[in-house]
Every structure is written in C-alpha cells, then in structure tokens.
Amino acid sequence: MKNRQHSVAAILTALILAVPMTSAWATHRNDAEQAIAEAKAAHEKAAEANAASDETANMIEQAEGLMPSRQFTKAREIANKAKQQDTFAYEQATGAAKTDETAASEAERAIAAAEQARKKAASVDGEWRDTAKMIGEAESLAKSGKYREATDLAEKARRQGELGYDQAMHEKDADFPSYVTSWRQE
C-alpha cells in the first residue's frame, strides 16, 4: 500500500511539473498572428519601394492558411521567412543594405551547382530525400541576404547530389549475394 501511494505521488508530481512545460515549446496563436502581421507590414513597406515579390505574398497567404488547422509553429516560420525576404528587398531598394556582390554570386553559383548535381542524381534514380528541400532553403537564405549560409547549405546539397549519384551507380548492377541466390534455387 505504501509503495502505491509513493508511485501515485510520483506520477502526480511529474504531471504537475510536466503539464505547464508542454506549452513552452509550442507556438501560440498570438505568436503566429503577430509574425503574420509583421510579415504583412514588411511586405507593404517593400511594396512602397517597388521591391515586393509575389513569392512573399504567397508565403504570407500560406501562413494565414495554416491558422485554421492550428499549425501555428509552421505559420510563424513561413511568416518570418517572408518578413526577412521583404525586409531585405526593401533595404536593397532603398540603398540601406550594401549587397556583397562576391558573396551573392558565390551563393548563386553554389545553388546552381547543387541543382545540377541533384538533377544528375535524379537521372539515375539516386536523388536523396532532402536534397531538393536543402536547395530551396539555400535559395530562400540567398533571397534574405544570408549569402554565406546559403552557400554552405548549397554546398551540402551539392555533395548529397554527388553522393546520391555515386550510390545509384554502384548499386546499378548489384545482384543478390550468392548465399541468397543458392537458397532460392533449392
């Protein structure tokens, strides 16, 4: 009986401590709504400078579309990306941001090389799962002016494309091992 009371007390203590912490990691509706409002404001500011893009407008709409399904964390992430891109576009249009042309062209070359490696791997059914997603994230980072991060991510994606191609070519003529084929013949 005494052990049972201790285990019940331990469970209650754990629940009392754990339940308040569960909301700490989740994004609340207010946070997502605030991020969307900030993204809209940045988009309007970029539009005033003729620097707004349809892509960021679509991202904001996508974030708003996630709200009814209670995907607040994803909505906040998308809205923050849109805000970063519009803010950077506004700064470029008004001359506030000095673009490092070398870093920008390096990121562009790295992204193009990654896309080429991905297509080469895909041509032999060797494309790895997240390669295209990594390239998309690198493009998003470049649009936000984060050229160094975009270059690094594109290099990783390029390497994945190369490895995927190599793996597919090595497995191309692979057959079952002899111990498997001898079992099948019996």
Automatic annotation (TrEMBL):
Keywords attached to this entry: Coiled coil, Signal
Superkingdom of origin organism: Bacteria
Coiled coil: 97-124
Signal peptide from the UniProt entry: 1-26
The name this protein goes by in its record: SoxXA-binding protein SoxK
Organism: Imhoffiella purpurea
